Amino acid sequence: MEFCKNKLKIKIEFINDLDLRKQAQELGIKIWQTPSFLFIVFGLATTIIMAATYFISKNYENPAVLVVSECLVVVVIFIVEMLVARFIEQMARLNRMKSEFVSIASHQLRTPLSAVKWEAELLLKKLKKGLSKKQINNIESIYLINQRMIHLVNDLLDVARIDQNRLILRKQEFDFSKMVEEIVREVVPTIKLRHIEIRINAKKDLPMAVGDPEKVRLVVENLLDNAVKYTTSGGKIGIKIFKTGKYLSFEIKDNGVGIPEEQLNRVFEKFFRSDNAAKYQTEGTGLGLYIAKNIIEQLGGEIWFRSIENVGSVFSFSLPSGK
Ligand code: ADP
Fold first, then answer.
1. 78 and 127: one domain?
2. Looking at the domain assignment, is residue 99 inside a domain?
3. What is the pLDDT along the chain (323 residues), one digit of tens a residue?
4. CB 34 within 8 A of CB 23
5. Containing H/E element for 254?
6. Which of 148, 255, 257, 259 to probe ligand 1 with, by most ligand atoms within 8 A of CB?
7. Most buried of 2, 15, 121, 167, CB within 10 angstroms?
8. Nearest C-alpha to atom 23 of ligand 1 is from which residue?
């Protein structure tokens, strides 16, 4: 059964590969630039060259003809290789330009967004007097929407840094359990509003974790945010922290919407959002887990998960432990 499924999948992928127009649309390039088109052209060129060489060697015994034809073959292969190398170089350049653009645009966006945040905070904290309830509600909405934008811009900056191998992480000892408890405390009001129950089970006398506290906080916040986002009202979330050998492990379990089986292998891809989650919860960028995986692996840990659609998910990661 599994074998038949795999065979069918390979067949569908092969048919998709031959749909040049679709491939060109998906990659945003011209049809003659698609990998499948180039593959077909190179395949044809190789076949023609082989047939011509065979024909020449069979019909002409003169060594000079053979030498000239072989030289021609070498020239053709050389030109093809040069074209491929140029094409790959162009792609790499475009990819670098795209990452640099995202990086510069995100940096530029950070300044006005921070200014809006300070102004809204000032209005809400110091200049509240004299404002009507409706005005306060509006400013609070501006503040929350702006916070979401800041979060998105920070995610884009991290993705650009990861893509350019520029993500710099500190390695220091920190109290991981205390950090998790703090993060949970911050989200309790939202969780309560959605009637979701949350429990933390942290073993006593755990060693310190070794890593970048700021970035590890980001990972935990993202996993907790996902567990809340993708769990229906009245659901249950359980967190466990324990030691496994020289590592500290974190596990977060929910009984939410889960992830469809056929999409499980794409969960850590950039911009991935499962079909059911996109329908159920419109907010999200599909960047959180991609960033989380890169952070944890760069810190020497591992991240993994299991999930069943309509049953729930368990996301876990490990970090090297200290004293
Ligand atoms: P976002 O949540 O912003 O879409 P993430 O990278 O954090 O991006 O997650 C990628 C996708 O993985 C989500 O869109 C969702 O489809 C799926 N996912 C992640 N965590 C969960 C979870 N706890 N339950 C169900 N689906 C999840």
1. no
2. no
3. 555 556 666 665 666 667 888 888 877 778 887 888 888 888 888 888 888 888 887 887 788 887 888 888 888 888 888 988 898 898 889 888 988 898 899 989 999 999 999 999 998 888 778 888 899 999 999 999 999 999 999 999 999 999 889 999 999 999 999 999 999 999 998 888 889 999 999 988 899 999 999 999 999 999 999 999 999 888 999 999 999 999 999 999 999 999 999 999 999 999 999 998 877 766 788 999 999 999 999 999 999 999 999 999 999 999 999 87
4. yes
5. strand 247-254
6. 259
7. 167
8. 227
For residues 41 and 47, give the distance between their C-alpha atoms in angstroms, rounded to a whole number. 10
Q: How many CB atoms lie within 10 A of CB 9?
A: 11
Q: Which atom of ligand 1 is nearest to the CA of 315?
A: 23
Residue 17: which residues within 8 A CB-CB, separation 6 or more?
23, 36
How far does the centroid of ligand 1 lie from the alpha carbon of residue 309, in Å? 12
Query: Is the shortest distance between the CB of 252 and ligand 1 below 6 Å?
Result: no
Domain count, the chain: 3
In a domain, 102, yes or no: no
Determine the structural domain holding residue 34 and report its residue range: 2-93
For residue 16, being part of any structural domain is answered with yes
Residues 142 and 238 reside in one and the same domain: no
pTM of the model: 0.79
Residue 186: inside a domain: yes
Shared domain check, 229 and 299: yes
